[in-house]
Amino acid sequence: MIVRDYNEAVNSRRRIDSDGWHSVRLLLKDDGMGFSFHITTIHEGAELEMQYANHLESVYCISGEGDIEDCATGEIHQIRPGVIYALDKHDRHILRARKEMQMACVFNPPVTGREVHDETGAYPLEAEPV
Amino acid sequence: MIVRDYNEAVNSRRRIDSDGWHSVRLLLKDDGMGFSFHITTIHEGAELEMQYANHLESVYCISGEGDIEDCATGEIHQIRPGVIYALDKHDRHILRARKEMQMACVFNPPVTGREVHDETGAYPLEAEPV
């Protein structure tokens, strides 16, 4: 059994910071669960265009307020606590936070923790540290 | 892109009720994500002994307070918002809620939504409706 605490992990190497967001990776590939689990904070006012070519991701809103635009259709979905979106088609999307949002994110395949978002906003599959 | 809202799903067939807990399945096997995602509420005072022989599960505490006992070691871990536990060894465990707990649960392989907990507390793999 693995037990971890966000409140400790947020001050550890499990936290990564980027423009408009930071993320705490509570479960990674090495944990052997077959998925990774991250608590990601989208900063107030952030607008992030993203597409994960190599991963499926679901995102559940714990707190905050914003919206997500599906770039394929132009449709905009409101995000508030209790809303989940799942990028089942590697959907390109734009995420906007009107108020800081805390999100529970699941990635399949699991993130290794060594990826960086590349120029398309994607995580490369099985990236190795360089 | 799939978008769902817990606040609607909680009044739908996505909700299942059992002794001491209820669960809302926001993503199931049919969604094709390779995992399922549930928001599960453990009722105040509940004490649940469980073991999933056929699934790996991670559980992140969004709200509430309780503890989890690892039956293999007797160790008891406190649960409060931000704590995650992952049953990476199909661990038999006892979950106790001192205050009602809301948990974000991920199952691999994904739950189909047709399982019932059997007499060992496990979900059978690929159960079909009877």
UniProtKB/TrEMBL annotation, chains A, B:
Q: What domain of life is recorded for the organism?
A: Bacteria
Q: What is this protein's function? A: Catalyzes the circularization of gamma-N-acetyl-alpha,gamma-diaminobutyric acid (ADABA) to ectoine (1,4,5,6-tetrahydro-2-methyl-4-pyrimidine carboxylic acid), which is an excellent osmoprotectant.
Listed EC numbers: 4.2.1.108
Q: Which GO terms describe its biological process?
A: ectoine biosynthetic process
Q: Which InterPro entries match?
A: Ectoine_synth, RmlC-like_jellyroll, RmlC_Cupin_sf
What reaction(s) does this enzyme catalyze?
(2S)-4-acetamido-2-aminobutanoate = L-ectoine + H2O
Coiled coil spans:
none
Q: Does the keyword Lyase apply?
A: yes
What Pfam families does the database record attribute to this sequence?
A: Ectoine_synth
Pathway the protein acts in = Amine and polyamine biosynthesis; ectoine biosynthesis; L-ectoine from L-aspartate 4-semialdehyde: step 3/3
Molecular functions (GO terms): ectoine synthase activity
PANTHER family annotated for this entry?
L-ECTOINE SYNTHASE (PTHR39289:SF1), PTHR39289
Query: Can you say what this protein is called?
Result: L-ectoine synthase
The entry sums up its family as follows: Belongs to the ectoine synthase family.
Could you list this entry's UniProt keywords, alphabetically sorted.
Answer: Lyase
